[in-house]
């Protein structure tokens, strides 16, 4: 172990000299884990910040709520007309942005009718499916990209030296690069990455790096993020996917607060690229950052989701409370409830923040936090937010709520339908039924009125149905089938 000193700007301190009031953080860096990385220091942030002598911060300030509005939303009294006017102003500016749904998780190009088999290619039992540019790639004794429309081979990369997974995954946005990961023999946290141009299949570069748990994830079109040990804490590092140049990095101290419970026993790095979020849970800490490296909340464990107009909503773990943050990760207001942020979402009706009020779904004004409307009824989770409609699930029942006024558009009972990965083209919601010996069915539910527009059997052996670059694919242990 080597002991180093770093200033608050993340630059190593030569000889320990710094201005008198500047905070110097000292910790041990595990050279064995980080020897190949040319470690340049870190940028302390979030939980890594130390209070200056004599400085006292409130719990709200430590949680990132410096701009918290006074009072709970349940008792907030704002004139209905004034609230509607404020929300209307925000709707006018950005509510009309419905485009780009095919680029979102589960988003599809327009379906003109029931799906049908377009083409089939054989795959191995443990083949990995990857999203590519106008293609779907398969990692199976090499990496092969098939044209999404014709099924013809676009390109092939052989000899990936034991790669066992690649990014981006199905139901994730297509990136300019594909990153394939392989463990480095003899190095417990060593991972070899091979970077492939998604359009041409050219190998852009290969390098070895250290990542806790060998976990490497995409964040943005040309960046990846990983976690390293630094003394008792962790470093979250975002870097160029090809040359490893550091874009940002943050130091996380071990969490010593009252919420150190079962989630902290987990060890994972999670990146929600569509939402622009990087989450680290485990190894004694938990934190969420924007794709640009801004810490969202602090001290307590948060479940963070993205809202339209580059805002975020955080739900405090086990507390029944939430906070809405702006694009700079600054707290705007808090509320009693839990944010509803489905992965499948467009930018429509950005002036309303849907929340679970425990017994009702509520629509909050995105500017003030006032309750605009309530729609009574329990909700387990949000399934989709598309074209001004929020679809929520309660048991086997789906319910569509108009985000403008809270009116219930329709309800549908689908007792044999799993909606773990809903898909949509903006007109219908496509759901896959639970698997049976006879296979699965795909059901298209109209977002306008909840009718089952069509239903198609997709045969036995299908393990999952995924969206890749806006098109539907069925994956079995022997074949990849294009359905749209």
Word description of this protein:
The protein is mainly beta and 484 residues long. 5% of the residues lie in helices and 45% in strands. It contains 3 helices and 38 strands. The strands form 10 sheets. The chain has a 5-stranded mixed β-sheet, with no helix packed on it. The longest helix has 15 residues, at 80-94. The N and C termini lie far apart (55 Å).
Uncertain runs with pLDDT below 50, 5 residues or more?
Answer: 1-99, 257-266
Strand content: 35-45%
Largest sheet: 5 strands, mixed
Which class of secondary structure composition applies to the elements? mainly beta
Instruction: Report Rg.
Output: 24 Å
Shape: globular
Determine the number of helices (DSSP H or I, runs of at least 4 residues). 3
What portion of residues is helical?
under 10%
What is the overall pLDDT average?
75
N- and C-termini, Cα separation? 55 Å
Q: Which strand order does the major sheet show? A: 3-16-15-14-13
What is the number of strand segments?
38
């Amino acid at each position: 172990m080597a002991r180093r000193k770093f200033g608050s700007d993340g630059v190593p301190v030569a000889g320990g000299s710094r201005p008198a009031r500047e905070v110097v953080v000292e910790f041990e860096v595990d050279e064995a884990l980080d020897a190949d990385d040319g470690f340049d220091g870190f940028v302390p942030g979030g939980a890594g910040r130390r209070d200056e002598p004599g400085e006292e911060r409130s719990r709200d300030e430590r949680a990132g709520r410096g701009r918290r509005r006074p009072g709970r939303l349940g008792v907030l009294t704002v004139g209905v007309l004034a609230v509607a006017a404020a929300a209307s102003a925000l709707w006018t500016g950005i509510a009309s942005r419905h485009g780009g749904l095919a680029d979102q998780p589960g988003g599809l190009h327009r379906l003109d009718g029931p799906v049908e088999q377009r083409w089939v290619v054989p795959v191995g039992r443990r083949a990995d499916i990857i999203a590519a540019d106008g293609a779907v790639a398969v990692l199976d004794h090499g990496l092969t990209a098939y044209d999404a429309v014709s099924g013809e081979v676009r390109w092939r990369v052989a000899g990936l030296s034991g790669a066992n997974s690649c990014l981006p995954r199905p139901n994730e946005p297509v990136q300019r690069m594909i990153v394939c990961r392989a463990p480095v023999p003899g190095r417990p946290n060593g991972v070899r990455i091979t970077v492939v141009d998604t359009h041409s299949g050219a190998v852009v570069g290969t390098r070895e790096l250290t990542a806790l748990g060998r976990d490497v994830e995409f964040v943005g079109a040309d960046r990846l993020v990983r976690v390293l040990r630094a003394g008792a804490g962790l470093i979250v590092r975002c870097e160029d996917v090809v040359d490893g140049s550091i874009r940002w990095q943050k130091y996380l101290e071990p969490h010593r607060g009252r919420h150190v419970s079962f989630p902290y026993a987990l060890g994972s790095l999670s990146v929600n690229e569509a939402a622009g979020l990087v989450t680290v849970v485990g190894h004694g800490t938990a934190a969420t950052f924007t794709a640009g490296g801004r810490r969202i909340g602090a001290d307590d464990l948060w479940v963070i989701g993205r809202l339209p107009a580059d805002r975020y909503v955080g739900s405090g773990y086990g507390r029944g409370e939430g906070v809405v943050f702006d694009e700079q990760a600054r707290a705007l207001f808090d509320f009693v409830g839990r944010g509803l942020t489905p992965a499948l979402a467009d930018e429509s009706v950005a002036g309303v923040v849907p929340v679970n009020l425990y017994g009702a779904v509520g629509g909050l004004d995105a500017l003030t936090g006032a309750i605009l409307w309530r729609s009574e009824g329990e909700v387990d989770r949000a399934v989709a937010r598309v074209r001004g409609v929020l679809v929520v699930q309660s048991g086997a029942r789906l319910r569509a709520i108009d985000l403008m006024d809270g009116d219930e558009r329709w309800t549908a009972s689908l007792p044999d339908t799993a909606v773990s990965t809903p898909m949509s083209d903006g007109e219908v919601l496509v759901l896959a039924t639970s698997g049976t010996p006879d296979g699965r069915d795909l059901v298209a539910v109209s977002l306008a009125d909840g009718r089952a527009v069509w239903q198609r059997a997709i045969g036995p052996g299908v393990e999952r149905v995924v969206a890749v670059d806006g098109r539907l694919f069925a994956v079995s242990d022997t074949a990849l089938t294009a359905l749209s």
